[in-house]
Structure formats: structure tokens, C-alpha cells
Design a protein that fits this description.
single chain, mainly beta, Jelly Rolls, seven-stranded antiparallel sheet, about 55% strand, globular
Length: about 150
């Protein structure tokens, strides 16, 4: 079953206080990325695609490098009722992710919130009036800025 979340990391990652942006995703393959768990991750038509794995367990894709202070811009399309997001400043033990996540979920399920996995839980829940910002089956944009102890995203 194709339970798809498209992530297009036409993303530019700019290191805070740096002069140039770097591209995390080359549009061709998963070079520079690590798969955690059994979910299927691949590139199709320059899009990064995730499908449920054979055991329907959690799975993640992470960059091979750790980034501390940065500005991340990306586009994504959510086509199924699934919970997703972008983990930042996080660590992995198998498929256990400890860290902060900028939430991506169907409308009225806290897209735009910040959640700390295996920590304090919800750090920021979006205002209910703004929780309908995500457009299902359409391209959405997200920008995350991490600078020292301050995290913002739009």
C-alpha cells in the first residue's frame, strides 16, 4: 500500500551565520541520508517518497550529518492520514528518536506544532484557528530556523 508522504528537499539548508546554502537532497538518490526502521524510502521523479514498510512499524530518514544552528526550507505533500514531521537536533537508537519535531499531520492534528519525543511532549501546539494551514494533497512549505536555544518555524 502506498501511504505516501512526499518530501521535496529542494530544501536549502543554510547554516546560521554562514554565507551559503547547501542542498541536502540531490533529487536523484539517498546519498547523504540514513534509513532507520523498515519503512521504504526512495526517490521518484526528483521527489523523496516514503511508503509503509512490511511490518507497518515506525521508520525515519535522517541526514548523515548533524546540524546545530541552521535555517531549513522544504516543501512537502501529505496524501494520507499519517503522522509525520521534521525532527531537529535529535538522536536515534534504532527507531527511537529523542528530540524535537516540527509536526506534519492531517488538518486539525497539530501541524505546525513542536513536539519533544521521549521528553516533555507538546512544547508548542498551534492555535486551533491556524491548525487548518496544511493543505492535503497539495504542496505545502515549511521553514525551520534553529539558532542557539531558539527554534522558530513557519
Amino acid at each position: 500500500m502506498k501511504n505516501i508522504l512526499y518530501l521535496v528537499f529542494v530544501c536549502s539548508l543554510s547554516l546560521v551565520n554562514a554565507q551559503e546554502a547547501i542542498s541536502l537532497f540531490n533529487g536523484n538518490d539517498l546519498n547523504g541520508w540514513e534509513i532507520h526502521g523498515t519503512e521504504k524510502w526512495y526517490v521518484e521523479n526528483e521527489n523523496l517518497i516514503r511508503e509503509s514498510g512490511p511490518d507497518k512499524a515506525y521508520g525515519y530518514l535522517s541526514t548523515s550529518k548533524f546540524y546545530d544552528d541552521f535555517e531549513l526550507s522544504l516543501e512537502f505533500k501529505q496524501e494520507a492520514d499519517g503522522n509525520s514531521g521534521v525532527f531537529i537536533r535529535s538522536t536515534f537508537e534504532g527507531t527511537k528518536v529523542s528530540g524535537w519535531q516540527a509536526e506534519v499531520a492531517p488538518p486539525n492534528m497539530h501541524t505546525g506544532g513542536i513536539y519533544e519525543s521521549y521528553g516533555r511532549g507538546w512544547l508548542i501546539k498551534p492555535d486551533p484557528g491556524k491548525d487548518t494551514t496544511l493543505k492535503m494533497n497539495q504542496w505545502n512549505t515549511m521553514k525551520i530556523v534553529a539558532n542557539e536555544s531558539k527554534i522558530t518555524h513557519t
